[in-house]
Amino acid sequence: MLSSSELKTVPKKKNKVLVSIGWRKVWNWKTITLLLVNIIVVLITLFPLLYAVSMSLKSPSEIYQQNASFFPETPVFSNYLDVFKTAPIATYIQNSLIVSIAITVSQIITSVFAAFSFHFLKFKGNKIVFALIMATMMVPGEAVIVSQYLMVSEWGWIDSFRVLIIPFMTSALGIFLFRQALHTFPMEIYESARMDGCSNIRFIFKILIPLLRPTIGALSVQSFLGAWNMYMWPLLVTNSDEYRTVQIGISMLNSIDSQSIVLMLAGVVVCMLPSLIIFIFGQKNMIKGLTSGAVKG
To answer: What is stated as this protein's family in its record (predicted)?
Structure first.
């Protein structure tokens, strides 16, 4: 029989063997090659962002130096403070947040209600109406932007939050995503809920919306990023700082002096932070929502 001291050494030896086998399985040539490829792709993808951050921390004289290094010699963090002093960037960010959140919430609500109607309420012309909605996705926004501008200008909506929010309260992509997600939803649950006296509104908010969280997360990320990065429409319909969004406000940092380039890059970095945070925290739900309803069975 083994002594107590020998018994204690057996698990340690087994653990060392298992660890060595595990490392051999993980760190093979195929895994190392894939890891290196992923690192190269990430560096190429993030290079514009890293370049903007590096340039925004340089002094104006350092940017125009010949043979300047990629990294700043002495980081100038005061550039980010000067951004808020040169232009009302805080007001622009606030306006963009209001517009983006309002568009995101409205698109989620309208898409859920529309998808519920197409899936559960069998009315005449159901497929035709849905096909017409999907057909709007093939029409580029630039093709109708002039007619939209003439329409809202006649209504007196120029320079207001409603002109930035109301035209984007619905989303054909959102209706499509929710309708595809509902294909896997059992119709018997809806029928039993109706037999128990549950109204359609209560069914949507109590049963349907909690089950559609991945799709809601996917549409939230897509809608927020799309609203945050809008440029052409806010440029046409806003003329004052009270309603101007952050993407238009960055151009206010441009001037004839050399410091404007540094301030513009710092402003771009500041404006990218909300969208990066939303994407980082919502990417998992975005992937789940885009793939929900794709596989049946």
So the answer is: Belongs to the binding-protein-dependent transport system permease family.
SS3 of residue 36 by DSSP:
helix
Contacts with 68 (C-beta within 8 Å, 6 or more apart), sequence order = 58, 62
Q: How many angstroms separate the CA atoms of 231 and 102, rounded?
A: 17
Does residue 238 carry a pLDDT above 70? yes
Where do we find the tokens 């909690």? 210
Task: List Cβ neighbours of 238 (8 Å cut-off, separation of 6 or more).
Answer: 158, 159, 164, 244, 245, 248
> What residue segments make up the domains of the chain, in order of their start?
4-56, 81-291
Q: Domain 81-291 has what CATH class?
A: mainly alpha
What is the Cα–Cα distance from 285 to 213, expressed in whole angstroms?
8
| Predicted local distance difference test score (pLDDT) of residue 210 | 87
Look-up: residue for tokens 């890293």? 50
Secondary structure class of 169 (helix, strand, coil) = coil
- Which residues neighbour 82 within 8 Å (Cβ) at sequence distance 6 or greater? 259, 263, 266
pLDDT in tens, 52-74: 888 888 887 787 777 777 788 88
CA dihedral for 239, 241, 243, 246, sign (positive or negative): positive
Residue 228 has pLDDT above 50, yes or no: yes
Distance of alpha carbon 263 from alpha carbon 259, whole angstroms: 6
Closest CA to 209 of 115, 95, 91: 115
